[in-house]
Amino acid sequence: MIAKLVQADEDTVRNVIHRFNEIGLACLDPRWAGGRPRLLSGDDGDYVVATATTRPARLGQPFTRWSIRKLAAYLRRVHGHVIKIGREALRCLLARRGITFQRTKTWKESPDPERDAKLDRIEEVLEHFPDRVFAFDEFGPLGIRPTAGSCWAEQSRPERHPATYHRTHGIRYFHGCWSVGDDTLWGVNRRKKGAANTLAALRSIRAARQDGAPIYVILDNLSAHRGDTIRR
């Protein structure tokens, strides 16, 4: 009756009843086994980590970085230290050891000898006159076709836009002005960069502050930002 109620084997139910009569509720302890012994020792794990953090070229491999598949295949055929490990077990081992896939990023330092002095001036006006500070720059080239995006919408089939393989109608540059004090961005799309377009953007900044007081514009040293008309 009990076996049918719990949908278990009769011998299993009989053994549990006997164990309950002997030791009480402790019989409900499932007494899980320890599982299969580990196939990799601590030294094997250290060797895997050392291999993963070594450039493949130094080990005679014809590629520049390890993937999980390539690393597992290499460990299976290392002469004198063969390690048979699956891809998922290898991934978990690296994660436990704190080894993650990373990309190197680079940056460029400005060659301008007056860089520090200019940065000091920028920090000074940002601290004392934030409502008079503006930043200007061009962004591009921009494809004029719509780009992919995401939003919340009613369930349906999303729109699909063709990829921009040929810019048959040219490109555009966004000339943007940002007011630091107001945290406001405005701008216009142009066909090209140039001193005339830069001057128009600077005039729009002056129009935003028509009181005649000084304004401070932060921009880079692009040649289109340093024309004689702009300086005047």
Strand content: 5-15%
Count of individual beta strands: 4
Query: Low-confidence runs (pLDDT<50, min 5 residues)?
Result: none
From the alpha-carbon coordinates, what is the Rg to the nearest angstrom? 34 Å
CATH fold name of the largest domain:
Nucleotidyltransferase, domain 5
InterPro entries: Homeodomain-like_sf, Transpos_IS630-like
Organism: Streptomyces lividans 1326
Protein name: Mobile element protein
Describe the structure.
With 232 residues, this protein is α+β, with helices and mostly antiparallel strands. It has three domains: 33 residues, no CATH class; 55 residues; 92 residues, Ribonuclease H-like superfamily/Ribonuclease H (Nucleotidyltransferase, domain 5), CATH 3.30.420.10. Helix content is 35%, strand content 13%. The protein contains eight helices and four strands. It has a four-stranded mixed beta sheet. The radius of gyration is 34 Å and the shape is elongated.
